[in-house]
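FIELD: query
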Amino acid sequence: MKILLANAYSTLNAGDGLLVRRAVELMHAAWPDTDLDLVVAASHPESFADEPGLVAVHPIRGGQQIIVAAAGLSAFAAPTLAGRGLSETFRDALERCDLVVSVGGGYLRQPTFRGGVASVAIHGAQLRAIAASGKPWVLLPQSIGPLVGRPGQTIRSALSAARTVWVRDDRSLTEVGGDARVRRAPDMALLAMADGLPTPAAGTAPVGVVIRPLDHPRDYEARLGSMLAQLPTAEGLIQSSHSGNDDQPFTRGLGLSTRRSLKQALHAELQHRPTAVVSVRLHGALESILAGVPAVHLGYERKAWGAYGDVGLEQFLHPARDFDPGLVSRQAQALAEDPSTFWASLARSADRLFIARDEVLASIRDAVDGGRR
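FIELD: result
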């Protein structure tokens, strides 16, 4: 079976890489006894070179970004324009595939008009080409919207061709819901826990801190500084180091070392593994939890409330721009000493995750078995 995984970005952002790996695992779970030919369309395909079982292609022909942006923003009434500027390898993968699965994430969010234009410029031509192809298409749990103006119209039109659109937060469900195709499920990183909750495996190293710059920060940086002053041994851990999305300068600017990535820290020997993590990046928090390390999350988007709410961890979630530095530092220190409350809260969500994962798997199989009914 040939499957095209669309709308990927780069493994140099560990959260995006995690979402692709979870999508691959889900495909194998859907068809455990079938040979799968998996192609991922990614903005930085070279970063997937070491991912087993994947062929990575760039969706856009070299030098065609302006044409593709125009295609994405143009009226949906001219679907042939969607193919202009798309790479031969992408079009070939789309033509040959039995199923298209858009990876999870937040690339269809449009917090501002400018953000909407950027989203459509990067993903609009892919979406339109997929919609026009008539291929069975499922979107894994997304944050979508608000869908306004021409960018919103482009995305909404394309989504009407999908067999199932999974969303990962209630605001997205309100934005694009209204028919049976749009359904709610937890974030892909959480669905990975359906086969078994993480085994607590915190180490003895200091609390790890994963931070990033934010738009409209208000006094975010001052609050971070106050929190770090109360966690004097905290170590800065880098979750994204990609050009244009590199957390290292911001982390160093707050006085933290950047010797290790989050991934390196979570897979280190116990004496070098953090006892707990405070993460501004959602998938930094979720990746920590998957590795058995409790995580306090400083959320800045709707996905945070969706994810931590889905697994009963709301008490460990705080708004990034308005959090109480003393409360967060005390909470991190308490988790480092005794994380039993954290893991007990997570355990109560096991049945929900199992049911949700089965529903997502069923929708993927049904897309192939029933086509677009």
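FIELD: remark
The domain at 2-192+352-370 is CATH 3.40.50.11930 (Rossmann fold).
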